[in-house]
Design brief:
Helix content: 25-40%
CATH architecture of the largest domain: 3-Layer(bba) Sandwich
Order of helices and strands: HHEEHEEHEEEEEEEEEHH
Mean pLDDT: 96
Largest sheet: 8 strands, mixed
Number of strands: 13
CATH class of the largest domain: Alpha Beta
Number of helices: 6
Oligomer: single chain
Length: 233
Amino acid sequence: MFELTPALIAELQTMDTPTVCNALELLVPGRRGYGYTVSPLVCTRPHLKPMVGIARTATIRSAHPSDLAAPEARALSDAYYTYIDKGPKPSVIVMQDLDEQRGYGSFWGEVNSSIHKGFGCLGLITNGGVRDIPDIAEGFQMLADRIIPSHAFVHVVDFSRPVDVAGMRVRDGDLIHADQHGAVVIPHEVATRVRGAADQIIRRERVIIEAARSPGFDIDKLRAAQGKASEIH
């Protein structure tokens, strides 16, 4: 059973998301072409540490009012918040905007960032819009497709099912690593090995970088450095 411990969180936060992606290429080569965001997202607070948390998934629409009657709409909203509150912590919300015109209205602003932070959420990743940027809960990170002014008719459609946000397929319970570069899903079975794999790659890269920055660098020195780097395991 996978457990996201404080020690593992702290270890994963020592790396940016590109470094994690590099490590996963070594640990799970078959994942090289998927499992991370491939469309650009706006990061509202690039100075924050990387988010490392368990995914809680949901879908929204905002271009038109919900088709549900008021009592059913309230019940769905309550069920969504219960799902977030009762889930594993810390969490990262991964929310897919289903509208053809994504970001027509925003679910995310001062109120929902405060509610979700209170429920143990670190932030969110969405292909929709966000707003209230100066008033977002302190320390709450947001990676979004765009920044917009209105919430329009925004409402939750579903939750806890697989979603696709910026090309990244995410299931409820996945381990997420995200920063200003984007986000990646870390398979549970290799999470404790990411730091070691990243260190190996960094040692290899350092040999090449140091050679490239040395006087008289040329193709022969590059080839020699590449050879030395390949021997590092």
